[in-house]
UniProtKB/TrEMBL annotation:
Classification via SUPFAM superfamilies: lambda repressor-like DNA-binding domains, Periplasmic binding protein-like I
Residue ranges of domain HTH lacI-type in the record: 19-78
One MF term in the entry's GO annotations: DNA-binding transcription factor activity
Protein name: LacI family transcriptional regulator
Family matches, as InterPro entries: HTH_LacI, LacI/GalR-like_sensor, Lambda_DNA-bd_dom_sf, Peripla_BP_I
Amino acid sequence: MTNSRDAADEPSGAGRGAVTITDVANAAGVSASTVSYVITGKRTISAATRRRVEETIRTLGYRRRAGSPTTRAGVLAVAVPLHGDRHPGVEMEFFAAAAGAARELGFDLLLVTDDEGTSGLHRVTSAALADAVIVLDAGDDDPRVPVLLASGRPAVLVGAPGRHHGLASVTLDCTPAGQACATHLADLGHRSIAHLEPSAAPPGRRAGYLTDFAEGFRITAARRGVRVVSRPCAPAAEDVGRCLDDVLTAGDVTALVVHDEAALPPVLAALRDRGLRVPADVSVVAVCSDTVARHQPIRPAAVVIPARELGALAVELAVRRLDGSAAGPEAVTPSFVPGESTAAAVR
């Protein structure tokens, strides 16, 4: 039998009328244990049920007990999901900038990694180990959102589209970057381009900015009469080889857009192995961090992800929320930077 006022069941502003897990369960039409599972992540709950519980938590104003509201730990938690879609250059720049911004504001960073769900995030918020939380790679129906809403702690979602009311968010507006990339290649006379997309990520982890870039790129290419061939391309050498064999024999492809910084070095190496020169035989545009771009044999034309700006802004928003200031959705626009990897189409 579920205790309706368990250890996690205490809203801010206790007293008569305080909202309990049972209140949330009754309003959402689910059991109290289901609400608890949504908050703690101890069991998998369907997306529809999770959304209903999340909305009810927000509507009723339910909060868990999280220690004295006047006591600060001087720590910002950064929650990073461990999954296969890694971008080491982007993450390194993000963490370096976030750590610097946090240090200037008198905070330390606590890295929270948990590939089994939300238990790590639940542990940090329920034990009051951090004053605010920054969640990386947030997506629609993200199971970490109910944990944050119930914790009552300020939070910033990095990658979310800003639809989670009550939580600040910062994301990338990649539509202009996709448009600029297509325009650059079309102006060079390329009429058939392969877009090597990131390989599939687990559900709920693919941020909307990937779709925004692809849509901006494809629409602009279509307007310019450019054919686009899209293929997922994992960074493993054998996957890159198969992908290149596919796109380079599918038609008159003269340019590649590599939309995964981890795949960029193996793509360039595979092109060399095939005797194809960049950019004399094939042009290449990368979507990557500045760190990865600077470490290639030639400086690639690139949509540069502003990871440093994202890291500093996420910390700024978290501290702003912690101090009680408003912090609405923020967007950062990547820039297209010309390089040495593109040239006029050869055919």
